[in-house]
Amino acid sequence: MSKKTLHPSVQQFKEFVKKNPKIVLEVRKGRTNWQDLFEEWYLLGEDDSRWDEFKEGNATASPTNDEGKKEWMQQVMGAVKNMDTNQLQNHISSLSQALGAIQGLILQFQGNPQSKVSRGNKANQPQHPFQFRKD
């Protein structure tokens, strides 16, 4: 089995991506795709300022995990501070009612056997109309 050889420019681009792994993260996050990145790399070259944000030495490219967590916690705390508890309670109550209604519809369409048993006197009746007993 012969291995396909890539065009030299594609091999160079792969080496460039290996040197700058933040480019892979951009593609995985869906912000761009490989085709666009390759075309930009091919037209602009490796030394263009477009690639500065992806270089390893650049500390301002993206916040570290600790900074990202702190920022997220600040956003959550800000949302909690601005929250109206009465309004939140009303939303939770209406959501609970909606879920109860949906659950009731599902049970109705399923023909839940528990709902038939809980109707009272039918639960006490035997399954068959004739009971045969041994003497």
From TrEMBL:
Which intervals of the chain are annotated as region Disordered? 113-135
Species this protein is from: Bacillus yapensis
Q: What is this protein called?
A: Cytosolic protein
Biased composition annotated in UniProt, kind: Polar residues: 113-128
